[in-house]
Amino acid sequence: MITRSLANVQTDSPRHADTALISVSNEPQTRWQAQLAGAIRDPRELCRRLELDPGWLPGAEMGHTLFEVRVPEAYLSRIRRGDPHDPLLRQVLPLMAEGNTIQGFVQDPLEESGHTPRRGLIHKYHGRVLLIASPTCAVNCRYCFRRHFPYHENSPSRAQWSDTLAYIHDDTSINEVILSGGDPLAASDRQLGWLTERLEAIPHIKRLRIHTRLPVVIPDRIDTELLDWLSATRLQKVMVLHINHANEIDDAVMAACRRLKDIGVTLLNQSVLLREVNDSIETLAELSEQLFEAGVLPYYLHVLDPVAGAAHFDVPDQEARSLVEELRTRLPGFLMPTLVREIPGEASKTPL
Ligand code: SF4
């Protein structure tokens, strides 16, 4: 999310195919990389493993042709078998509805293509830039606003990175760099360490923010190697997780969050309000409570970005506002996420 998130570890889809942000790694696979490589990428396999009625298969196969299926085992294990309405399954199962053409739902809903002054760099807001640090994700969320993003045009080679870093160096108004993607933590620790060293050598950069879903879908990603380069940097560290439902937070996710907190990472969460996933007071309240248990503060609750193929997840603004108003009567203020919409051309996210 995204959600909203350096080189890919292994890629084979058209979307994530060829280019790596830094370089393609030839390092031996770690435990998490093996899990990433072993993620389910076949809609038939997904339906079979989850014991879904065969009636779901045609939609899954059609949607897969638009945006490939990708579900790691650690996430699959939290989905109830035989329940097509499981809130985690809803996020990863392609449906026939993805093929519908709906007015207002477009390929680039945030008009990011107009804000890429360098390959792999998006500069929309004052003081911060976003780097497309990986063209791949550990999970493909069906509602992703970058499901049509041209990653092949935005994946610099290591040589091209110097141009991107020079842009950041030359603009002293930038004090924060956001690693996004894809999912930046799909890059290897060697590659992330390489980039972080170069960013911290730029005197006006204070903060490194990482937007990632990997600690949620493959908690083993938070391993010693990652903690080593992250602890070593002088930069302030913020990790913005992407969790939409309390069922996504199991013991392994809790442990991963604890490891990050122990080295001084500020943990925040952004969610997307999604029809039939988290569009109820009880679900949103439980999510905030579980986040806090994990040491994560709710940050944003985004309304859906109108991306083509995801209209069936949409919750109208008025309903979203009502939900949040009622949520405010249930939770202490520090557990309330801010309901926002991202409007192309605006200088910040817009509270609703
Ligand atoms: S597909 Fe990737 S970038 Fe999109 S929301 Fe999911 S984890 Fe984030």
Question: Your description of this structure?
Answer:
With 352 residues, the chain is α/β, with parallel strands linked by helices. It folds into two domains: 69 residues, no CATH class; 240 residues, Aldolase class I (TIM Barrel, Alpha-Beta Barrel). It is 31% helix and 13% strand. It has twelve helices and nine strands. The protein has a nine-stranded mixed β-sheet with strand order 1-2-3-4-5-6-7-8-9. α7 runs parallel beside α9. The longest helix has 13 residues. The protein is globular and about 55 Å long. The two termini are 19 Å apart. The N terminus is likely disordered. The site of iron/sulfur cluster has 16 residues, from loops.
List keywords for this structure.
alpha/beta, 31% helix, disordered N terminus, 352 residues, binds iron/sulfur cluster, 12 helices
Task: Describe the protein's topology.
Blueprint lengths: L30 H7 L5 H7 L7 H10 L6 H4 L10 H6 L28 E2 L5 E7 L23 H13 L5 E6 L7 H12 L6 E6 L1 H4 L6 H9 L3 E7 L8 H12 L3 E7 L8 H13 L3 E6 L14 H12 L9 E4 L8 E2 L1
Parallel strand pairs: 2-3, 3-4, 4-5, 5-6, 6-7, 7-8
Antiparallel strand pairs: 1-2, 8-9
Helix pairs in contact: 7-9
Helix content: 25-40%
General shape: globular
Radius of gyration, whole Å: 19 Å
Individual helix count:
12
Domain Radical SAM core: 123-346
Modified residues (N6-(pyridoxal phosphate)lysine): 349
Protein name: L-lysine 2,3-aminomutase
Binding site for [4Fe-4S] cluster: 137, 141, 144
Short structural description:
The protein has 352 residues and is α/β, with parallel strands linked by helices. 31% of the residues lie in helices and 13% in strands.
